[in-house]
Input
Amino acid sequence: MQRFALIGAGFIGTVHAANLAADPDVDFAVVYDIDTARATALASKYGARAVTSLGEVFDPAAIDAVFIGSSTDTHAEHLRAAADAGLAVMVEKPIAPSLAEAHEVVAYVEKSGVPANLDFNRRYDRDHAALQRVVASGGVGDVELVQMSSRGPSLPPVEYLKVSGGQMRDQTVHFFDLLRWITAQDPVSVAVTGSALVDPSIASFGDVDTSVATLTLPSGALVQIDSVRRTGYGYDERIEVMGSTGLVESRRQRSGNVAVYQGDGILLDPLHAGWFERVQPTYAAALRAFVAALEADTPVPAPLRDGLAAQAIAEAATLALQSGLTETIRYRNLDWRPPRRPREPHRQ
Amino acid sequence: MQRFALIGAGFIGTVHAANLAADPDVDFAVVYDIDTARATALASKYGARAVTSLGEVFDPAAIDAVFIGSSTDTHAEHLRAAADAGLAVMVEKPIAPSLAEAHEVVAYVEKSGVPANLDFNRRYDRDHAALQRVVASGGVGDVELVQMSSRGPSLPPVEYLKVSGGQMRDQTVHFFDLLRWITAQDPVSVAVTGSALVDPSIASFGDVDTSVATLTLPSGALVQIDSVRRTGYGYDERIEVMGSTGLVESRRQRSGNVAVYQGDGILLDPLHAGWFERVQPTYAAALRAFVAALEADTPVPAPLRDGLAAQAIAEAATLALQSGLTETIRYRNLDWRPPRRPREPHRQ
Amino acid sequence: MQRFALIGAGFIGTVHAANLAADPDVDFAVVYDIDTARATALASKYGARAVTSLGEVFDPAAIDAVFIGSSTDTHAEHLRAAADAGLAVMVEKPIAPSLAEAHEVVAYVEKSGVPANLDFNRRYDRDHAALQRVVASGGVGDVELVQMSSRGPSLPPVEYLKVSGGQMRDQTVHFFDLLRWITAQDPVSVAVTGSALVDPSIASFGDVDTSVATLTLPSGALVQIDSVRRTGYGYDERIEVMGSTGLVESRRQRSGNVAVYQGDGILLDPLHAGWFERVQPTYAAALRAFVAALEADTPVPAPLRDGLAAQAIAEAATLALQSGLTETIRYRNLDWRPPRRPREPHRQ
Amino acid sequence: MQRFALIGAGFIGTVHAANLAADPDVDFAVVYDIDTARATALASKYGARAVTSLGEVFDPAAIDAVFIGSSTDTHAEHLRAAADAGLAVMVEKPIAPSLAEAHEVVAYVEKSGVPANLDFNRRYDRDHAALQRVVASGGVGDVELVQMSSRGPSLPPVEYLKVSGGQMRDQTVHFFDLLRWITAQDPVSVAVTGSALVDPSIASFGDVDTSVATLTLPSGALVQIDSVRRTGYGYDERIEVMGSTGLVESRRQRSGNVAVYQGDGILLDPLHAGWFERVQPTYAAALRAFVAALEADTPVPAPLRDGLAAQAIAEAATLALQSGLTETIRYRNLDWRPPRRPREPHRQ
Output
């Protein structure tokens, strides 16, 4: 049984709270939020205790693990505190707003030796996970072409976009991680073309709302990722991996499985209205995997370092969008090893 | 090369003519129709000769095979003439309006020994044929449940329905044949429930426009066939066969493969507007199979006797609709043998 | 906030317990089970109190509503106790093993005036519910043909089947309720044909494992329900309703949305392995609707009487299976009214 | 009625011959091929006349229109001959192996004023055409993102590839035309990344077998086209167009519509085995449109100039593949106008 403290009682914090309460190996002990009332309300719903000081969070006597679900600019600080207290820690992406700072934090936490895990929840999407298993087991042969669509239903507020770091760092970064995880390869280069089609004012601060990225894998395989901020037809996420012997596709998910037949066509249920409808179940599964690793004393499923790699790709992609050139992705200082499984040399 | 005469230059005759002209092993020689102008127009389009007497059709010196595509009440007479002339013959369903007369004609033709084939074109539907192969090869194990939907888009004229013999004889009969062909079993009993929902006036002459039939196969397997005269959403034909190890389905066919995604749903192309859009390719394939049998001097694929069996089921179904009881299907006088392959005794 | 006692801590009881704990308007107070250890374990997981006497369940001072999730033969007794104590009550199907006893219990409970609700959870299937809304809103016009498939993946133990009351009462009864709910009509007659194909020994106690039922609605519309105990390919549940202007289908649900393309075909994820995978979310939704009615002081969504109607159809269907005849369904003594919305006279 | 001469009796010539024979407004008069025996065999099958001199093809007294279906290096010569003879002409793609020569030929033919039409048959794909109509009618709003997949089942012989001009000119060019036709925009720039994954020896002559192209439209909309020589799972062609209000997709086409349900998955029919299975019906439709324009004396549907534009894009794409840079597409000397409909300025 792992005694958990949760930092952050906002929207996503409430999701984590419900999952912590339901997990059979978790004792959901403590909630902290800078908004004390919010912490109290959330804690009381699940029989946890609201605390008002971080000292009660990072307390090895009462807590085994901390879940950091607070705002991005606090992640680094809380990660260091967990390392100092010797507590296991799970943290929302990203590790830190800047890659340089993220590097420092990861080095610090790794030195401490505490189990530290990123919440790469999309890896736990039922269908993406099945696709990854097909690819990893050789079900489509050697990977040759990967296509990913990341398309949100509606434009976030421009005020949010201004401070988001840009589409590559804010949106596409999730798919850079999925790409590494699915192919077990680190892409070597990236080119990006983008436009501000939905709201041209986005261009005024150097960002885009519609973009296509092309990446190359060490094996020569090619990758296309399209990122769209506003579809008009719902949340559209899709992955396909073509290999030397077949293709596997994690298809668009509809919100239901009803069909109405009329003379002018057959109307199926639309895609999910928003991203949360699709990804909700992934949070509990990601937590489950972390807790299981703690219970079994095995390596965490998504070490912080994986986040550095995704972030490095996002940095190169941001540069490529500005330069109009194909940019090499630099994982330097990472002392990098392939993420999971050895690759055979490409067949001749 | 088989020299063919075609009887009938109406709508379906023009379909047969195009297929006769395109078949590589057919010399499309002669067209006959009681409407001479119609025969002439059709013949000239394909370089055939229009004739005005049946003597020029049933002429062994000039003709090897006759395709009877004229009206139902003439089939028997033309079949006998082909038998007398020693010509191979392919005929549209049914053999004759009454089962008794059909029996007589079949006996007459069989005695002559000429190759005589019914145009059971639906057996050549691309998807139904694939389903039949799956079933015949044991791909779903022993058949346990069969479901068939036969649904036309719009009500035929009531004047037509009055003389059609009723829904079982006119519409469902095609599926009685498909059932025998797919399962290689002759159903033993049938019950039918029906209503005149589309046009209550149909009830005044004892017919229905919407019905469900339940049949039992010798193995104990169950069959459901629904027959609908007017769907309002296009031509809807579907077959599924559940066996002891799996299920195979010949799905509804859409008229295209385009999808439009909007916020309120995903609109697929509708089903075919009419039956002809779905079945058109089957006519050429059915002809091809007959011609191939003639060329190879092998048994014809759908001997007339198969038509008697389907007609016998339709008679019992018509009786069942009237009686409200489960009726035994009587194939007597047919000296019947299972149509194609031996059945093992049902496993214990 | 409704204080709930739960009776029954078996498999389905644990499902109800999780839902009671998660429902925002429920105070999950008490668990009772004849197996005290089981009750204690379940109660402790959710911070509820295990009790050892029914007096602590039916205690108006501490409890507002009782959820009866114990074995079928105890439902009647607990329903009467809830009525006596003036407590709201939600009960698993069926009300009682025999229709006669069910009648008595319903009369008793109705006289008491307590809110009493059957757990017709399948009505809360996401897709079936959407289909029902399409039908109720006239989206397919007047109902003309209904088809339902109820197919379990594997044969239950024969020992269970022997005491189950037969396929109609045990399995098909759920679809008799769905039929009434979807069409807002009470069927007038039923005919059933069945076979013991999976395990012929089932025939020795008068039951079947594969059956097709044909029902007629007051409007003349026709209904087909097939019930299968063992598919070999997973849990297969499907409903389609054809009306005068279109068709709506609640499709087979697959366990995932992944496709693998190979040269010999495209492999999609299979259907759910078992019934529970499909219906799990329906239990929470059914509970939610009951609690919402209690909170709003409005009529319960599925009054006990609805269960009598489904049970009456199952009785007639059982008789029809034995007699081989079309049986009239007798709702007598029910002082019956159409379940939900007025019907216009059938259009001429 | 248009009297046609066909040049070329090879594989695709036999397809054209069958379509010429079946078209109601065509008098299929003459066949020419450098292989005289081949011409004779094809002509005799359809009652046409085989000729041995091109003088009998380009003979205004006997012929109204010429269909050029011979090898690519002869197209220019035959086009000039048709212009000289004042005959209408339909020609297979491309106009000439080099863009410069194609420019000259088009100028020559345009000066003559004869109706001259390219066989852009893929525009007549049933589903692509429906997609184009949806886009053109504003059914998805302003185009923002286009994705096309062009994937053949198996690698053509390396000997063929060596002289093919490269993947962009040989394969992707068809989709450059579809792109212009669907969006009614001429792309302004193109970047291409490619690899020789299937057969590394292809790299030795500067070609690739797997590539992704990114194009930008004048409106800022983005385009992705992937081109694959060998899939391992059949012929895979797919187009989707995302606009400001929705998305339209011309889906992968399967070779049949049968599904087999087993415990481990649902097996659908594979994609078509080859490209011809998908595109066969488009040839007759493309011919039909040309003949209809001749009969009605209206502009031809696909003037030669459209071929120049597609070829200009392919040249820029070939350059981009070599340079690794985004290349501007130069339509110079074409006195270019948007192909079909005016565009409103992009909305603010």
Q: What stands out?
A: The first helix of chain A runs from residue 11 to 22. Confidence is low (pLDDT under 50) at residues 336-348 of chain A. The interface with chain B takes residues 231-234, 236, 254, 261-271 of chain A (CB under 8 Å). The CA atoms of residues 170 and 197 of chain A lie 18 Å apart.
